[in-house]
């Protein structure tokens, strides 16, 4: 239950900060919106997969594959260096969860992914 609240908080934070974006350029604002949307979708899919892993452990792998695809598309659609780094960090979080699952963990810690989602929110916040 605590993990779900943390996930919800990270996703809500990223989405809220994106909504308040005062980015200097329209392109960055659009990148932020796309990123927040992709992250919310990705984290939700992974959270659902982890919570139902006992019923079907392959769902985690399917969710991770979906996240990888979304992140690949997202990285290719931005030329903002800070946002690219945040996407890279999110990709590393996915890799960490994938490694845990490969090692037999059916309830992996998805904190690296929620942390990366928070970082994207920070990137999208005006400085």
From TrEMBL:
<keyword id="KW-0732">Signal</keyword>
<protein>
    <recommendedName>
        <fullName>Secreted protein</fullName>
    </recommendedName>
</protein>
<feature type="signal peptide">
    <location>
        <begin position="1"/>
        <end position="24"/>
    </location>
</feature>
């Amino acid at each position: 239950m605590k993990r779900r609240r943390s996930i919800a908080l990270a996703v809500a934070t990223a989405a809220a900060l994106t909504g308040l974006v005062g980015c200097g350029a329209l392109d960055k604002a659009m990148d932020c919106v796309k990123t927040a949307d992709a992250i919310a979708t990705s984290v939700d899919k992974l959270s659902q997969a982890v919570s139902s892993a006992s019923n079907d452990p392959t769902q985690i792998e399917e969710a991770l594959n979906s996240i990888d695809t979304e992140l690949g598309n997202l990285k290719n659609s931005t030329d903002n260096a800070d946002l690219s780094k945040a996407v890279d960090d999110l990709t590393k979080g996915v890799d960490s969860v994938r490694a845990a699952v490969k090692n037999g963990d059916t309830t992996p810690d998805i904190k690296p992914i929620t942390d990366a989602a928070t970082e994207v929110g920070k990137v999208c916040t005006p400085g």
